[in-house]
Design a protein that fits this description.
heterodimer, A: 92 residues, alpha+beta, 2 domains, two-stranded antiparallel ribbon, 5 strands, 20% strand, elongated, B: 257 residues, mainly alpha, Outer Surface Protein A, domain 3, 3-stranded antiparallel beta sheet, 11 helices
């Protein structure tokens, strides 16, 4: 390996190690979880019951079988007029 | 309104786009009742439908120029370019180029790049799924051999480089964030990815889009760094990698033995 290539390899290894550490810290703060029963009509990220299968298909506000991504750890503390958010589908 | 199977499609399309032209000859209406009136309704619906599709596809451009201007501009685009495929989500692929040549929009020089970014967002939204490589696995890679390693990027990965701050413009219009003055002459390179179901639009350091393009075309990390530093002498590799790792761009990394 030439000196120049070795330098590049060391620089890339160092940058990667630092970047992974930075990303892990930032990710811990950003982690998301699927939260059922909190999305507004048509604003769900996915799953809105049999027959419909994806984003933006929920028919009512806070539909129990539609979920939305929320920051990790916050789902069950979200309070809607129909009750709290849930990590599992709920039937209102 | 019925049409026989062997009609002249070219003439039909011409009549569809030009309200001055009579309806196609093959057109039959019940009792021969005023085909031009019925065709005018159809012509209008086609145009309105496609303009609506563009408005959905380019919501920030719409906000930037206002509803009236956007719809007028979109109508010109529709006349110039009907959909090439039956997939409406692909419609608008030439909109950014059209906007850059659209004289009334010259006062907003950043508008074509915002359109380019919005098209990338839509393309990312409809791209195939792939599981990003977990950070634990990336940490376990032999980092000293990454220089000659290649990567598979998430299929939704898009980059858009601009001489204008397109990421800042996009973000401000997507949120209710309070508007702060923008330095318009500061360019930004946008990274668009959809690692799970939500679109992520973030700025890459200068040279970042060349870095991503080099990796995407099969280059090694070493070659990608060279490509980036060729356009940006002070390319910030760590910042760039942090953003790529955070947005789940890497689906696989293969280290040569």
């Amino acid at each position: 390996m030439s000196d120049k290539k070795l330098c590049a390899a060391i620089a890339i290894a160092g940058a990667f190690a630092t970047a992974v550490a930075l990303a892990e810290t930032a990710k811990a703060a950003n982690d998301q979880e699927k939260c059922f029963g909190v999305s507004l009509k048509g604003k769900n990220d996915c799953a809105a019951g049999p027959g419909t299968s994806c984003a933006g298909t929920s028919k009512t506000n806070y539909q129990g079988d539609a979920w939305k991504y929320v920051p990790k750890g916050t789902c069950t503390s979200i309070v809607t007029p129909k009750g709290k958010g849930s990590l599992e589908p709920i039937s209102h | 309104m019925t049409i026989s199977a062997d009609f002249d499609q070219g003439a039909f399309v011409r009549a569809l786009l030009d309200p001055e032209l009579p309806p196609p000859n093959e057109l039959e209406t019940p009792g021969g009742f005023r085909p031009e009136r019925r065709f005018a309704v159809y012509r209008n619906n086609v145009c309105v439908g496609l303009v609506d599709a563009l408005a959905e596809r380019f919501p920030i451009c719409l906000q930037l120029v206002g509803d009236e201007f956007f719809r007028a501009m979109a109508q010109c685009y529709v006349r110039e370019r009907l959909p090439r495929t039956p997939m409406l989500f692909e419609y608008g692929d030439a909109f950014a180029t059209f906007v850059s040549n659209f004289k009334p929009a010259r006062e907003l020089p950043y508008l074509p790049d915002v359109a380019r970014l919005e098209y990338a967002v839509g393309a990312a939204y409809h791209a195939a799924d792939a599981a990003p490589l977990p950070l634990e696995l990336i940490r376990a890679l032999p980092l000293d051999r990454l220089e000659s390693a290649t990567a598979v990027l998430h299929p939704s990965t898009q980059v858009v480089a601009s001489a204008y701050p397109i990421v800042s413009i996009w973000r401000r219009h997507m949120s209710d964030e309070k508007m702060k003055p923008l330095e318009l002459d500061r360019g930004e390179e946008a990274l668009v990815v959809r690692p799970e179901l939500a679109i992520s639009v973030s700025p890459l350091p200068s040279g970042g889009s060349d870095f991503v393009d080099a990796l995407r075309s099969g280059g090694t990390f070493g070659e990608a760094v060279n490509a980036a530093t060729a356009v940006a002498m002070d390319f910030k590799l760590t910042d760039c990698l942090r953003e790529l790792l955070l947005t789940g761009v890497f689906v696989a990394v293969s280290v040569a033995h």
